[in-house]
Each structure stands twice: as structure tokens, then as C-alpha cells.
Amino acid sequence: AQVRAFTDLEPLVPAKRWAGLRTFVADRTPVLGPDPLVDGWAWCAGVGGFGIMTAPAVGRSVVSLVDSGRLPEDVVAEGGVAAALRPERLEGRA
Hints:
Helices cover 29% and strands 9% of the residues. The chain is α+β, with helices and mostly antiparallel strands. Strands 1-2 form a two-stranded antiparallel ribbon. The radius of gyration is 19 Å and the shape is elongated. The protein starts with a helix and ends in a 9-residue tail after the last helix. The relative contact order is 0.17.
């Protein structure tokens, strides 16, 4: 309504609304970091339900795990444990 009040534009209305894919892992913990079996592949999955507020820390954590194998210091200070996030924890699970 506000767009029409100030312009001649007719706003488009999406037929369907979708916020994005929400992925989950059996242990409900994100999977972050390099894949132990596929060189050059890194995971950032299983973050469904954690909310958009975690996105900056998750993004920095993935980069840090790929670059150094460690989590950022501030994430560790808040209780983050790299081994609990790495993909290798899921090896052998279907």
C-alpha cells in the first residue's frame, strides 16, 4: 500500500513464501568444518532451529575450522568445542 501511495509501481506478491532450508542432524548439533573424506569440501549444516542470531558465529567458526582447525577464541569462551561440531563425529552413522 505504501509503495502505491508514493509511486506508480505495482508491487509483486510472492505466490509462496519460504525462509530457507532448515537442516538437522540426529544429535541436533551443527556440523561445521572441513570434510575428513573429501578434500576441499567444508560443512555448514544442521543449523536448523538455532536461529539467525547464530549466523555470524557459525560463519566465523566454519572459516576458522577450515583455516586453523580451531574455533574462534570468543566462541570457545562461550563454551564452543570444536570436536563437538566437526563432521568426523558423525562417521559411521547412517
